[in-house]
Task: structure prediction
Amino acid sequence: MTTKDIQIYGAGLSGLVSAINLARGGHTVTVYEKEKKIGGTLKCHPSVHMTPVHIQNMQRYVGIELESCFSKLEAFRGYIGPKKIVFSTKNLYIVERGPRESSLDYFLYKTALEEEVNFEFSHPLTPEKLRSIPGNSIIATAGYSQIVRDLHLPYVTFKQFDTHMKTDIRNITIVYFGDYTSDYGYISAKNGMLSAQLSGPSNLSQENLKKFTNLVKETEGIELDSWSSIITHFPKKARLFTKFDGKTYVLAGDVAGFLDPFFGFGINGALMSGKIAAMGITSKQDALQEFKQFTSHLNKDLLLHTIYWHLPLKKLILSQIMKFHDNHLSLIKRSIPGFTEEDWLKIVSTENLVFYCI
Ligand SMILES: Cc1cc2nc3c(=O)[nH]c(=O)nc-3n(C[C@H](O)[C@H](O)[C@H](O)COP(=O)(O)OP(=O)(O)OC[C@H]3O[C@@H](n4cnc5c(N)ncnc54)[C@H](O)[C@@H]3O)c2cc1C
Result:
C-alpha cells in the first residue's frame, strides 16, 4: 500500500465525488460499500430529493458534468397544518437517488468506473474494521450508518420514515409542517416515482406517521403505505478530520456534518465535501481552509435548530416567520452548506423564500 492507494468507505454522493477526484489526480482508489450494489440502503432509496443548487457553479467546483441528473422543479407547495401555501420554484431542482440507472448515484458510479476506480460491494465498515483501516482513509457512510456514533463524535439522533411508489406526477415537491412532528414531512416526484419522508426526533411514533399519512390523503389525495424507518446520527459539529485509535481519517458528506441543520438539505454539501475530502488527502491545509469557508456557520445553526425543535406553538411561529423578508431569512439561506453568502444570493432569490398564503 502506498500513499497513492486510497480507501473510501461509502459509495454515496460524497464518497463517489472523492473517488473521481482522487483517481483523476493519479491515485489508486478503492471504494468499499456496505450494500450489494450502488444506491445506498433500500430502507430509504430509491427516493426523489429536492434541492436548491447553482448547477454551473456546482459542476465547476466538483469537476463533474452532472447537470443531466437534475430537473427543474415545476411545482412546490406545502401545508402548515391544513393551511395551503405555494412557494416559488426558482433555482430549485429535483434529483433521483438510489440504485436505478436514472439516479445521481448511478451517474457518479459510471463516471467513477470510467476513471478506473475499484469497487468492493457487500463490504461494510464495522466498529471492528474501524481499528484496522489505514489512516487517511475517507469515511463517507452517511448519518444512517451509525459510524458517527462508532467514531465517538458527538451527535443528535433523528428518526425517518420513508416510502416510495409509482406515479404519473412529475417534478413536484409538497412539504408538510404539523403537530405530528417537530421537523417536517415531504413528498417529491420525478422519473415515474414518488417518494415520501417524515422525519423527527427518535421517538417519532406510528401514531405520528398515521396522522401525516391521513393529512396527505386529505390534502393531495395521495395514499402512502409500506413505510420503513431508519435512525440517523447527525454530528453536532462539522469536521473534516477525526482521530480514532491513533489514526486520522478524512470525513465526507453527512458524517462530516456537511448538511443544512434546518431542512436537511444534504445534496450540495455531499457533492462539495466529496471534493474537499479528496483535497484533504493531497493538501490538508487547503482542504481545511475550504471546509471552514463553507461550514463556519453550521455549528451555531445546529444549536438554533435544536432550540427550534423544542419551541412550543411552532405552527404559529412558523406562519409568522413565513411573513418575514430577506434580512430575517438570511440565516436560513446561509445554513445550506456548499456556498458562500455571495453564491447564495445567486441561488436563492427573495421570492423563493416568501410564502404566499391561499
Ligand atoms: C430519504 C432521504 C431523503 C433526503 N432528502 C433530501 C432532499 O430532498 N434534499 C437534500 O438536499 N437532501 C436530502 N437528503 C439528504 C442527502 O441525501 C444526504 O445528505 C446526502 O446523500 C449525504 O451524502 P453522503 O455521501 O454523506 O451519503 P449517501 O449519499 O447516503 O451515501 C452513503 C453510502 O454509504 C454506504 N454505507 C452506509 N453504511 C456503510 C458502512 N458501514 N460501510 C460502507 N458503506 C456504508 C451507503 O450504503 C451509501 O451507499 C435526504 C436523505 C435521505 C436519507
